[in-house]
Specification:
single chain; 4-stranded antiparallel sheet; alpha/beta; 7-stranded mixed sheet; 350 residues
């Protein structure tokens, strides 16, 4: 648990007062009934230790992803795998985007890695372009961390550009870490898993957290053809790190294809509606391909919404962003309407 430090993420609704949470980008429909039922059915087996090899779960992931079982390592949430990767790979220098998810830099800091930032700008919607390749050639770090789609911007990286980055990294002996945790909720985002076998420097991070509304049960996995790296990562965590309940939930979640499509259909309608509403208030809204929006608004918006019991993600702790930048999850329409009404009241009262 956290102790004596500030929580850098959204989703902390336990301090009281929050009745509507837009700060965490989880599934707007919550957890599928099939997953809840699987957890309930697994409850009588809680007295047993969980399978330390996650055999059935690994089999299910291999079928779902179409990859070799040897390429899979499961963890207690994506965050655990980030820290295990950093501890196992131990790069001395790394390059990440700014803004992007904070746990990469935090995990790298634990192993004394020097982290440099490649700054994205709102001029092109915070999108990564080919100038990144020139920057890579100039800096040649030992590891590159990318998030696709990026968090908090929601921007996808073009597949052709990703392949060029992958090729350069392989030729230059650079490890390439790509976080694909939001990819299944994106607009036609393409995984890089087809390149795993021939690119042992490629590491893909996945999670059940967002797509299947399973943040509370903590389950993630990674894909990589470097078996020695996966062994080293496994040594960094305890052998029963994935609970039996999480394993049962993961197996059930991978069968929820209709639930996932229903979620994407909702996002496809609600995200543009939210974007239009925010832009009508005069806010800059970053183009997004996934279930959240980054926007720039009044510097006191976070505080005033919290007074109304609504939590949004204050993004001023992201490198590259300042006061007045926020991220909101795409939720169901009735919830989205409540948020927009609250923002309208704040804007008109300013």
């Amino acid at each position: 648990m956290l102790y004596g430090i500030t929580n850098p993420h959204g989703g902390d609704i336990y301090g009281g007062g929050v009745t509507l949470d837009f700060s965490a980008n989880t599934n707007p429909f919550g957890t599928p009934e099939g997953v809840i039922q699987a957890v309930q059915e697994a409850l009588p087996e809680m007295y047993r230790y969980p399978d330390p090899y996650c055999r059935s779960l690994v089999d299910a992931i291999a079928d779902f992803e179409g990859v070799d079982k040897k390429f899979i390592l499961c963890g207690s949430g994506a965050a655990e795998l980030i820290y295990a990767y950093c501890a196992a790979a131990r790069p001395k220098t790394a390059l990440e985007l700014a803004p992007t998810f904070s746990e990469y830099a935090l995990g790298l800091a634990r192993v004394g890695c020097t982290v440099k930032h490649y700054y994205l700008t709102p001029d092109n919607g915070f999108r990564l372009d080919e100038h990144f390749l020139y920057h890579l050639e100039d800096t040649t770090p030992e590891a590159v961390f990318l998030c696709n789609p990026n968090n908090p911007t929601g921007a996808l990286i073009e597949p052709q550009l990703l392949k060029k980055i992958l090729d350069f990294c392989k030729e230059s002996h650079i490890k390439l870490f790509i976080d694909e945790c939001f990819l299944d909720l994106s607009d036609n985002g393409q995984s890089m898993k087809q390149y795993l076998r021939n690119y042992p420097n490629l590491f893909l991070l996945k999670a059940f957290t967002k797509s299947y509304g399973m943040a509370g049960i903590r389950l993630g996995y990674c894909l990589c053809s470097d078996g020695e790296l996966l062994k080293a990562m496994a040594r960094e965590v305890q052998p029963w790190n994935v609970s039996s309940l999480a394993q049962a939930a993961g197996i059930a979640a991978l069968k929820e294809t209709a639930f996932l499509q229903k979620t994407k259909d909702l996002i496809g309608v609600e995200r543009p509606w939210l974007k239009g509403q925010l832009e009508a208030f005069g806010f800059y809204v970053c183009p997004s391909s996934v279930n959240y929006l980054l926007f720039q608004g009044p510097t006191d918006l976070y505080t005033k919404l919290k007074e109304k019991g609504i939590a949004i993600r204050n993004c001023d702790n992201y490198p590259g962003l300042t006061h007045g930048w926020y991220r909101i999850a795409v939720r169901r329409h009735e919830e989205n309407e409540i948020l927009m009404t609250a923002i309208e009241t704040i804007v008109k009262g300013a």
